[in-house]
Amino acid sequence: MENYTVKDIARPSGGFAMLAVDQREALRLMFTAAGMKHEDQDLTNFKVNAAKILSPYASGVLVDNQFCYKQIVEQKAIAPNSAMIVAADKFIPGNGIPVDSVCIDTEIDPHKARENGAKALKLLVLWRQDEDPEQRLEMVKEFNQICHSAGLVSIIEPVVRPPRVGDKFDREQAILAAAKELGDSGADLYKGEMPLFGKGNSAELLSAAQKLNDQINMPWVILSSGVDANLFCRSVRIAMQAGASGFLAGRAVWSSVIGLPDTELMLKDISVPRLQHLGTIVDEIMASK
């Protein structure tokens, strides 16, 4: 059995232009806010259609077990030139938010995922300064072993949250602390948050992204949650100039079509060109490195 490597989820340029459709209750909230039908099947239909329409332009597509993994496999929704990445994280709601804590999803069999065409698994890791770092590191270690036992690529996604107790929270410092803790944890790819939400001037952003790069001892990409879709292209450019190798993003690609009529047509007219443009940015910067 060959072991997949990060090259198997990258573009020919070596950069990553990956699409996320693994949002769960957060997507339902988006549908609800837009006045759309938001039953489970509505979410599944959107995810499968997004995978079918957008995967030809993505080096990988991240899917979730709750709403679309099985359906995407059955319908062969991901283009042959794109790699399937399966979210192996179970979201636990609480305290009024859809994701209050996370554990490894034991329903995901890595060997079966590989048989189904997966080349990588992804794990969300919530980072709070007042929670035990050893527990996080142990979870990541277990996740890496699960991935590597099946020859799959291990992608970790540290996302920072305010502490459970007290209200002091410096997001930018937390992002750096999370990267310092988990950036050399044996995973194959680090999916990180964009410093400063991608706002501010380019020099500030570049400096912040370079500080993040200094903490990560593996290839890394940025996610788009929290970044204005209109600023995301610039965020990818700056993060890559600082040392990142691309992106794994959902909202920046497709969130603007939610609530519009003719969703499939809007995915083709709005989201495809956006994803193509992002892929071009990735290739350009990889070529200049």
Automatic annotation (TrEMBL):
BP-aspect Gene Ontology terms: 6-sulfoquinovose(1-) catabolic process
SMART domains registered for this protein in UniProt:
DeoC (SM01133)
PANTHER family referenced in this protein's UniProt entry, alphabetically:
SULFOFRUCTOSEPHOSPHATE ALDOLASE (PTHR39340:SF1)
Q: Which GO terms describe its molecular function?
A: 6-deoxy-6-sulfofructose-1-phosphate aldolase activity
What the entry lists under InterPro entries is as follows: Aldolase_TIM, DeoC/FbaB/LacD_aldolase, LacD_aldolase
Origin superkingdom: Bacteria
Its lineage opens with: Bacteria, Pseudomonadati, Pseudomonadota, Gammaproteobacteria, Pasteurellales
Q: Where is the signal peptide?
A: none
User: This chain belongs to which protein, by name?
Assistant: Aldolase
Q: Which family does it belong to?
A: Belongs to the aldolase LacD family.
Per UniProt, which keywords does this protein have?
Lyase
